[in-house]
Write a structure and sequence with these properties.
Length: 455
């Protein structure tokens, strides 16, 4: 079937907000055609079950996609699959391996579509194929209400490879110049430091929190939205916050003005009502933790349209943002932070959301997906080029792979930038040298390990 007819038959985003087919608008006009694709994956075990969204992961698949253009340029993109993040209901209805296999099947279907879709830059590529991917994703999963984040997550390795092909075709070798001109202003800053959000999942022992603070971490990201009913969740979340605050409240850092540690919360859309969130914040006030909360990520379900601009805490939009229209809707609901997930929802989408946020003077931060070390540096480029986050006055990003992967030490060696000073954590931050910006975090350097999967 002709692809345009197929897209039209799909109703052009009938189930999701309109994306539309866009004409190329970047300053670089070279048309790129992908003629050959390939993919592979590795399964990486986690140290302990990793809990969020009311579920638990025990492993994460690292997917590798290779694209070759008609001019002979071949590049490899990497992603970390997270079915639980992409669609929690689909995750719950399959075994963990089955869910990953389904997403990997979609990766290969996307590769077929990319071979049929010439593009001028990756942003336009994603815009042009997304309606078709939604139809394909629903067919592969058998889920009519498939969350679009599942599709974005499956697209990441191919999107990353497309960016590398695009850069090579246009003889670009820096992150700043790789970004299409209409999005460059939002990503024109150069931070000297990026604060690292240290994640506290449901079951982390308090000794590990104390150890992290002693290592210099000063921004602690607390997972809320515990399993169970809404009342069970709230009770568990409040009990957990009391334990965490009791553990950390008297510890100090030289990275903040008052010396106190900073908390952020990530509810992963588990709270069904604003009232429940307010009860949680009332508890935070009661125990003295409220003033240390910098922001709360995605507290409410995506369908919830209650206004949150009056809760007194910065509210970040994450899962519910999958295009400019949904971002604007959240901004109108009082959300005042955009959470970028280039490693979960593609760099192509992230640059658009960053540009929209910059137009409205809304700060951005980068959240993790428990990704591998190479993807940490991909995401570090985003965080490095954003306007400094309020209060901490530096970039802000989460990375938690080091505390979750069994094989993390070996995974570090797969990174061609391993050993660079800007890959090390120092007193709770990444310090970004001129070398980081000169090498763009190493994203243009090949990984012998992941390229070797195709030998």
């Amino acid at each position: 079937m002709d692809r345009r007819k197929f897209v039209k038959a799909a109703g052009l985003m009938a189930a999701y907000s309109s994306v539309g087919l866009r004409a190329a608008s970047s300053g670089m006009s070279k048309m790129i055609r992908i003629v050959k694709t390939d993919s592979a994956f590795e399964r990486e075990k986690l140290i302990r079950p990793f809990g969020f969204k009311g579920g638990y992961l025990t492993e994460l698949w690292q997917v590798v996609s290779r694209l070759q253009s008609s001019s002979g340029i071949s590049k490899t993109g990497i992603s970390t699959q997270s079915v639980l993040y992409g669609d929690a209901d689909l995750f719950a209805s399959h075994s963990e391996a089955e869910g990953n296999a389904i997403m990997y099947s979609l990766v290969n279907r996307i590769s077929d579509i990319v071979r049929q879709t010439p593009f001028q830059n990756p942003v336009d590529l994603v815009d042009n194929i997304l309606p078709e991917l939604i139809v394909q994703g629903k067919q592969i999963t058998g889920k009519r209400d498939l969350n679009i984040n599942f599709i974005y997550n499956a697209l990441v390795s191919i999107d990353n490879a497309a960016w590398l092909v695009y850069a090579a075709e246009n003889k670009v070798n820096s992150f700043e110049s790789m970004i299409p001109k209409e999005y460059q202003k939002a990503l024109s800053h150069r931070n000297d430091k990026i604060a690292i959000m240290f994640q506290i999942p449901y079951g982390m022992p308090v000794q590990e929190m104390i150890h992290a603070a002693k290592q210099g971490y000063f921004v602690f990201k607390i997972k809320t939205g515990a399993p169970g009913t809404q009342s069970e969740m709230l009770e568990a979340d409040m009990t957990r916050l009391s334990l965490i605050h009791q553990t950390l409240k008297d510890l100090r850092t030289d990275q903040t003005g008052d010396g106190k540690l900073i908390y952020t919360m990530d509810s992963n859309a588990r709270y069904q009502k604003k009232e429940t969130l307010l009860r949680y914040l009332d508890h935070a006030r009661k125990i003295g933790a409220y003033d240390q909360i910098l922001l709360i990520e995605e507290p409410l379900e995506e369908q919830n349209e209650e206004y949150l601009g009056d809760v007194g805490i910065r509210i970040g939009a994450d899962e519910s943002v999958h295009d400019e229209e949904s971002a604007i809707r959240r901004l109108d609901q009082g959300y005042n932070v955009m959470v970028l997930k280039g490693i979960a929802k593609t760099l192509s989408l992230s640059v658009k959301i960053a540009s929209l946020a910059a137009e409205r003077n809304v700060p951005c931060m980068c959240a993790d997906l428990t990704v591998n070390p190479i993807l940490v540096d991909w995401h570090k480029n985003l965080a490095a080029h954003l306007v400094p986050f309020p209060v901490i006055n530096m970039g802000l990003m989460e990375t938690n792979g080091d505390m979750n992967y069994v094989n993390w030490t070996n995974m570090l060696s797969y990174n061609p930038a391993a050993g660079a000073s800007w890959t090390d954590r120092k007193n709770g931050v990444f310090e970004l040298s001129d070398d980081f910006y000169k090498r763009s975090g190493g994203i243009y350097e090949s990984s012998a390990h992941y390229d070797g999967l195709f030998m």
